[in-house]
Amino acid sequence: MAKLLLGFMGAGKTTIGSLLDDRFIDMDTVIEERIGMSIAQLFDLQGEAAFRKLESELLQELLSTCSDQHIISTGGGVVISEQNRTLLRRNRKNNILLTASFEVLYDRIKNDTVFQRPLFLNNSKEDFHGIFERRMHLYEGLSDLVINVDHRTPEEIVRIINSI
Length: 164
Hints:
Helices cover 57% and strands 11% of the residues. The chain has 164 residues and is an alpha/beta fold. The chain starts with a strand and ends with a helix.
């Protein structure tokens, strides 16, 4: 089974995944390549439900086709779907949660000029914190290894993951 990187947006899943292995697969990147537009554009044109449907289909596809040699970075909201949580439970012992405090994540996302996150752009800080809290509860129930990334470099995080 593939190793899955879980965590809220801004936790560093893409950065860590790309440092872990050259067979790294970023689900958001795959979706963008397949639909020919950014996820933010998809949200604007078709809404979150359309994105979540594509995300669920891709997760199922990757978990059925990827080997234990693959590292997959999931989207931050992959855990909100019961169907996805069922798939993630089947991948036990291979789910790695990258976690950080809300304030660290909020600052990272706010200062990120590359990735525009629709849920960040379209919610107040208080509402965004509520999204964070709901998702953290779900991540924790699905993760086998939890790594707090607040005060760690990407290289330190990679060493922790490689030591398991």
